[in-house]
Amino acid sequence: MPQFLDRGDGVRLAYERHSGKGPGIVWLGGLRSDMEGTKALALDQWARAQGRAFVRFDYFAHGQSGGSWRDARIGTWREDALQVIDTLTEGPLVLVGSSMGAWTALLAALARPERVAGMVLIAPAPDFTEKLMWAGFPDSVRDSILTRGEWAQPSEYGEPLIITRGLIEEARQWLLLDGPVRFDGPVQILQGMADADVPWQHAITLAGCLTSSDVAVHISKSGDHRLSTPADIDRLVASVEALCRQIEKTG
């Protein structure tokens, strides 16, 4: 059963955590995903077996957490990540972010450089609201968002995704890829070349923006956006394990 963390505004965030050695792991899921996904559970199981501290949680308006989707913003999810880091963890951390969660991880690392020792980013989608959504929308969709305040985007993963004007406009203050991303710790990026949601070139752009000299990009030619096959999961766990060992040796 999940535990709950009060955001301070009456909304509670659902989370699961277990204590252990550091560096601890924080899982940051993707847009409309939850902490019960394949990758999150696989990492949780691995961390338990290793006796390593681990936290996974549901953002505002995701999973078992409270909040209205139409009120959600990139800044809201950034605040969620920082509250989880500040309240539920200690010591150096490895942030593992999937898709939108990679953007959240990057924002958290910039806000807490003294806590975040490294990152593993899966199909990273920083700036997706602007560069992958808004830039590709036809004028009719843009007009709908600007005049009606929202647009329902069909999704192959379930119900249509409601994209609000507030989400698009608020996200512009959190864009990262137009300049250097000042994080100097080790970063592992896992990307599928067959990803229909986040082009593999987006991962390369991010790697170039990071100021760290220790950035590795692993491209799977057949990999899709979810990267949840058994081979993908093995690669993810191996990447997190290697990064933890690296941080242990240097820390």
Report on the structure:
The structure is a single chain. This protein is an alpha/beta fold and 251 residues long. 37% of the residues lie in helices and 25% in strands. The strands form two sheets. An eight-stranded mixed sheet has the order 1-2-4-3-5-6-9-10, with helices on both faces. The longest helix is centred in the last third of the chain and has 21 residues, at 230-250.
Number of strands: 10
Beta-strand content bin: 25-35%
Please tell me what the overall shape is.
globular
- Across the major sheet, the strand order is 1-2-4-3-5-6-9-10
How do the helices and strands follow one another from N- to C-terminus? EEEHEHEHEHHEEHEHEH
Structural class: alpha/beta
Helix content: 25-40%
The biggest beta sheet is recorded as: 8 strands, mixed
Overall average pLDDT: 96
- The number of distinct helices, counting runs of at least 4 residues, comes to 8
Distance between the termini: 34 Å
What would you report as the Rg, rounded to the nearest angstrom? 17 Å
User: Regions with pLDDT < 50 over 5+ consecutive residues?
Assistant: none
In short:
The chain is built from eight helices and ten strands. By secondary structure, it is an alpha/beta fold. α2 (74-88) crosses α3.
Structural topology:
Layout: E1 3-6, E2 12-18, E3 21-28, H1 38-50, E4 52-57, H2 74-88, E5 93-98, H3 100-111, E6 116-122, H4 128-133, H5 139-148, E7 150-155, E8 158-164, H6 165-171, E9 187-192, H7 200-209, E10 215-220, H8 230-250
Parallel strand pairs: 3-4, 3-5, 5-6, 6-9, 9-10
Antiparallel strand pairs: 1-2, 2-4, 7-8
Helix pairs in contact: 2-3
